[in-house]
Structures are given as C-alpha cells and as structure tokens.
Amino acid sequence: MNGRDRTTARELAHRHLEAGDPLGWFEDLYLLAGEDSSIIPWADLKPNPSLVEWLRQNGSVVSGPALKVGSGLGDDAEEMARTGLQTTAFDISESAIARAKARFPKSSVSYVVADLFSAPNDWQGRFSFVLESYTLQVLPQYLRAETVRRIASFVAPGGTLLVIARGREPDEPEGEMPWPVTKQELSLFLTRGLNEISFEDYIDKEEPPVRRFRAAYIRPK
Ligand SMILES: C[S@@+](CC[C@H](N)C(=O)[O-])C[C@H]1O[C@@H](n2cnc3c(N)ncnc32)[C@H](O)[C@@H]1O
C-alpha cells in the first residue's frame, strides 16, 4: 500500500466492523471503485516489489501448484504465474475477481471467489507455494490466529509459505487500517506445523517508507 487516500476504505471498514461484519467492506469497496482503483488503497496495479525481489532471489526453490491469498486485482498472482507457477488466486470479493479476470483476459491464473474462512476442502495441504501479501493487516486482530491457521493449512508437505506485511512492535499503537502485524502474530505460523526459513524486518522504498516483515516458512515433508 502506498501513500494514497484511504478515507473511503477506512470509513467502510469502520462501519462494517462496528456492525460486527469484518469482511463485508471488501466487496463494497471494489464495487464502489468500479474501474477506478484510486479509492482502493492497496491497488498499485503492479506486483508487490517485496514479492518480485523475493521471487528473483528464491524463485528457483518454488515450483508446482501455487496459491495467492486475497488476490485483489491480480497483480501478485500474475507475477507468480509469470515465473512459471501454476497459480490459483482467490478473493472474497466477487467484484475484485471479476476485475482481475477482465484486466488479464489471457491469464493462466485460475481466479476463484472464495472466503479464506470457508475455502474449498481440497485446498488443504495442496499448494507447494502459498503467498499471503497484505491480507492479515486488513483483518482485525481477533481474526488473525484463525487467519494464520487457515493460510498455513494450504501448504503442502515440503511447500513454502511467503508472508509480506506491515510490521510494528507490540507496544506501538495499532493505528488505523491497515493495522500492522507483530512478530508475535506471525510466530503463530510456527504453531501450525511450519518452520521459519527466513524473517526480514526492513523499511521499504515506498513513499512514505513503511516498515515491512517478509517471512518465509516451509512445511517439513
Ligand atoms: C489489502 S488487500 C491486498 C490485495 C493484494 N494482495 C494486493 O496487495 O494488491 C487484501 C485482499 O484480501 C481480500 N480478503 C479479505 N478477507 C478475505 C477473506 N476472508 N477471504 C478471501 N479474501 C479476503 C480482500 O478482498 C482484498 O482484496
């Protein structure tokens, strides 16, 4: 996410959270945006630079069926497919999936409308590479342990999970959406049968610069 206006997204998120519906605002936002993505704070219309860099450095170690969690307008999924991964990408928002398909009509990516919390059973343990970029940080804290459990469950034995998120210390204020994650929250992946293979804590090159965590995990065979 860059320095664009988050007013509409924050208002929608706030309204839905107040109503006890933490997931309803995504479809509302994409629907409202239509073909104009300027009100979608994370819609950079290009692959996440932290993903591009990681794949450049580690792409040779990942192959086979891959899954993008919360695929939005499709740029990260397309980048995964470009590097040769047989990619499935899902998002809870029907409008986001429709837009991704329209943007990439010749894509090899299989775009699916699905809710992480009720994803198809046959996705369990099926993917050799799973990417989670920026979804955890737009879900409230009370959903994160379950989100971690669900994401981890998609990783096949021997498979890799890459997580990219805004980072903060536990004693720093959570702020407004997006709500950065803590290292403690990410350590929950280790309680779900995954081993950490790398953990990077860095300031990215966005304007203004943002503290990021980029962590890679493997499920032992
Ligand atoms: C912050 S956006 C990031 C999108 C994309 N990764 C990017 O960086 O452009 C998070 C995405 O997760 C989706 N999402 C949120 N909750 C979800 C859920 N429970 N199941 C599937 N997708 C979800 C949202 O619709 C949104 O597209």
Characterization of the model:
The protein has 221 residues and is of the alpha/beta class. It has a single domain, classed as Vaccinia Virus protein VP39 (Rossmann fold). The chain contains seven helices and seven strands, in the order H-H-H-E-H-E-H-E-E-H-E-H-E-E. The protein has a seven-stranded mixed beta sheet with strand order 3-2-1-4-5-7-6. A hairpin with a 7-residue loop joins strand 6 and strand 7. Helix 1 (7-18) packs antiparallel against helix 2 (24-33). The chain is globular, with a radius of gyration of 16 Å. The protein starts with 6 loop residues before the first helix and ends with a strand. Bound molecules: S-adenosylmethionine. Residues 23, 26, 42, 48, 70, 72, 76, 90-93, 96, 115-117, 133-135, 138 line the site of S-adenosylmethionine. S-adenosylmethionine (SAM) binds at residues 23, 26, 42, 48, 70, 72, 76, 90-93, 96, 115-117, 133-135, 138.
